Amino acid sequence: MSLFHFQEWFHTVVDEARTLTTGVLLDDTSQLVIGTLDGLLCLLDPGRDVDNRHEASSLMEIHLDQPIIQLAIGNFVSSQGDNVLAVLHPKLLVFYRVSKDGPETCKLEKLIEHRIKGQPAYNMCPVKFEKSEVTQICVQTINCALHFFESENHLLTREAFQQIHPGPIAFHPSVESVLTSAGGVLSSVKFSSLASMPKTGKGAKMMRDWELNIGDTPVAIEAISSPDVQPSIAICARRALHCLTSGGNLRYTIRLESAAMSMHVHTNGANIHYIIASHVKTLLFYKDTEMIWTSQLSFIPMEVKTGNYGDGFRGMLTLLSDDCRVSVGYLGTEPSLFRMPVTDSRFIDFEARQKELNEYEASISANSKTDMPEKEPETLIVETEINMDSQSNAIDTDESVSSMTLKVICSGVFNSAEVFIENELGVVQIGSEPNLEGSGAAASKVYSYTMFAERAVYDNRMTVVTVADGKDTVLKNLKLPLKVICEEAAAQKTALHKFSIDSSEPGLELTLLFPEFQPENQTAMGLRPYYVSETVSIFVSQKTNRYRVQSDNPISCFVIIDELVTRIRAHQPNVKLTASAVPMQLFIKSIAEFLDVERKREIEEGKTQKLTIMMRHVEMVLLQKLKSEFDQPPQHVNFLVNHTYRELLMSLDRLIALDNRVNPEGSRSFRAQLNLFTLLLSLADVDLPFDGRILDGTYQKLTERLSALFTSSTLSSNPEPAEVCRLIVNYCERGGRLGGITEEDEEEEEAEQEQHLPDEFVELKSGTLPVKF
């Protein structure tokens, strides 16, 4: 059962009731008008006296001479400013005015009466033109003839268009067309065509705008012409609901599981809402093509309308059942469903219940201890230790570099283990076999390695992968100590590249951040990476809570900045670090250059392949000439061989040179710049989806990998480097504040500290500019 179902607010029973309508006839609230086959016309206003609505709702009951087929309320008479009531009888169309005859009663005054010639009437629909102030009435007879009336005038009559039996009709004001559905065929014909065609009906078939065979018996037709909704036509058939455009094109179809009896349509914004009454005592509520609710009734609804019976009772459902019962209600809940049930009071022995509960708990505890399976020991447990060597064990190095010892301690149940180390240091294993520590089940194998810098280290990240028995794998991500990467040097005031980091907490002293180096100055120090001539300088401004890292070579800055950020966050867990400026032009230029090298390499590789094929062809020609015993190879053949050979060698040299710039060894500096770019953007609240590791482990070009990352963007199949760089710039600009951010001058601050800090810098600016391609 639905949570919200039909709650009956008002009901009445009118014998032989077959039609009803709602509208404003008196005051500013809706009245309910009911017509019967006996000719009884009932006027009700349930909202007049809400407390006594069943007794005081009746305003008028009058017997007319003929059966009432259909009712309508609207501005049908030009001489009347208010709405009037249109009553359709089998042979008459009568307009009535309803007025008050006292405080509690009303009277019905006949205004105009039209006699319908020919066959009896079947149904009618209002016809409203945009330029007309009065609503017309179109009456359809049982032989499908159409009669049009306006106030006291009978406008025209048109015979049937080869139709056998009538169906629902409607008028669409947007296209000024009459919609008929005789015989299950929906037809549309403009009113202007009806007015211009001859009375005999000849040529009527040619004047139809369109027709559509819906293959079912139509129940109701509604023309939808709300300003917020596309002009549409709703056709409710027995087994389907169709929605068409005003031109007859199908928008969508909703299949119904039960036979429909009637339909009511209203709009809300840009959506069309349908209320469909079915023969299984159910109301179906649709929002466009989506069913939003169903409600079960206690009767079969034959007609459904909505009405506003006062300020507090708007949009009330008004239903006419098959047993002549008129119900007014709403969708709501039944409060009695959510009341606590009344239970019989009974005595509870709490001591006995507590004793029983204790027995249950003891039984559960005993079963849990005996039946719980033993936890299987882990197959492989890996721990790592990093210790700096007191005396360097580095071998075959050009500089006096420091070394460290890495211990990988493996324990668990396994036969053999392999250790793989990935970093930028030189790795030498100590001993051919691991050392055993402990005995019995607690024994562990220790793998020792000596590590030192054989070249400049641009990335301090290290990965240790341990594989036991070829199946169990443990991965450890570590960071290399700074002392194995660089050594202390004098800080430099001037540098080409400067990176500033603002802190939300007071700046820390460098002796606290870098205790392994023990700098003499608390706010300035320098670190020189091994095998690199440039020094990376670090400055701390405690007055502005700012850290600054600068160097002539930005490649070496990633390791220092990453370590600086990590140590600041370790000492100040709640700190907020922000990169005050990100030099976009530096990194975008490097990306563009690398993409351009990849593109040139691809072009050069194609040229080399063509020259290789050409060389093979030239060799074939030369071999054919050499097979001759008498003729010497012509001079032009020798010239072609020499020229092709030289071009091939030159192309191979260019290809090797370009390949050295894009291979993993040649792209180390570019990888370091990407790592620094990603780190600075993360401090600027921009999450870049790649770093230097995007160059590892694949044979794809960087252009292809970046295109795969930005799948939502519109990139061509073979994008240019400038297009990819523009995409990255746009992505960064949408994610945070980038480019064009200059730092404030700190001349006043440095002047105050100059006597204490002789190495302090002055007039430091980031020099960042927006990047444009």
From TrEMBL:
Signal peptide: none annotated. It holds the Pfam family PHTB1_N. GO terms for cellular component: BBSome; membrane. Transmembrane segments: none annotated. Residues 481-575 form the PTHB1 platform domain. One of its GO terms (biological process) is cilium assembly. Residues 1-335 form the PTHB1 N-terminal domain. InterPro entries: PHTB1_N_dom, PTHB1, PTHB1_pf_dom. PANTHER family: PARATHYROID HORMONE-RESPONSIVE B1 GENE (PTHR20991), PROTEIN PTHB1 (PTHR20991:SF0). This is Protein PTHB1. It comes from Panagrellus redivivus.
